[in-house]
Design brief:
7 strands; TrmK; elongated; 2 domains; methyltransferase; Rossmann fold; alpha/beta; about 230 residues
Length: about 230
């Protein structure tokens, strides 16, 4: 038994947004390290782990068994939120996937989110897709964090279900409403990179025999927004 599962900085930060005593689901759990770590430190926590493939499922079950947590962590085989019954958990974690995939998982399984007051998402890209889904389904972004790990920049987005909901502008969906409030050094580092990336894409597209004018216009608009945000 390993009572000291060492999580990455990224997963440690994700774990910090799960309240004490929560019954939560971890979708696509990567060996079930996150739920095992939380349940070892918080004896009142419980979790459901969801894996879509047999290999990761068996690895997750092995981690849970080795830590004697089979009575508090249930490992299930299934696609996304299909593993849950409505009202079964109060929080959901989806980390380490593309933002488009996270959005798709949430949309496909939205009827199973009954009773889920908090969703913690850590998209590897396309963060705006997650924010757009939150905004459209009554989840208010209450916290956003950007961190660096092994040379990569990650965003962690926490959405809490609230009656009044939240409407986000295109800019807020792109940059993050909470991240825009602080503009940390890592935020600036990310968007300086993104600005250079967009400039390269625009240059490549303009060199094409038949440039896609509409796509170029989108990248130019976003480049303008990035410059304004960085200079403000």
């Amino acid at each position: 038994m390993d009572r000291n599962i060492k999580l990455s900085d990224r997963l440690n930060k994700v774990a910090s947004f799960i309240p004490h005593g929560t019954f939560f689901a971890d979708i696509g759990s990567d060996h079930a390290y996150l739920p095992c770590s939380i349940c070892l430190q918080d004896i009142t926590a419980q979790a459901i782990v969801g894996e879509v493939n047999e290999g990761p499922l068996q690895r997750a079950r092995e981690t849970v068994s080795n830590n004697h947590l089979t009575d508090r962590i249930d490992v299930r085989l299934g696609d996304g939120l299909d593993i849950l019954q409505p009202g079964e958990v109060s929080a959901v974690v989806i980390a380490g996937m593309g933002g488009s995939l996270i959005q798709s998982i949430l949309e496909k399984g939205k009827l199973r989110l009954k009773g889920v007051g908090r969703i913690i998402a850590q998209p590897n890209n396309d963060e705006r897709n997650v924010r757009s889904w939150f905004s459209s389904h009554g989840y208010v972004i209450t916290n956003e964090v950007i961190l660096e790990e092994n040379g990569f920049l990650y965003e962690i987005i926490t959405g809490d279900k609230q009656v009044e909901g939240q409407t986000l502008s295109e800019r807020q969906q792109l940059f993050g409403p909470r991240l825009l409030e602080h503009k940390s050094n890592l935020f600036r580092k990310k968007w300086e990179r993104e600005l250079m990336k967009r400039r390269r894409i625009i240059d490549q597209m303009q060199r094409a025999k038949a440039p896609d004018v509409s796509k170029i216009a989108i990248f130019e608009k976003e480049s303008k927004w990035i410059k304004e945000v960085l200079e403000a």
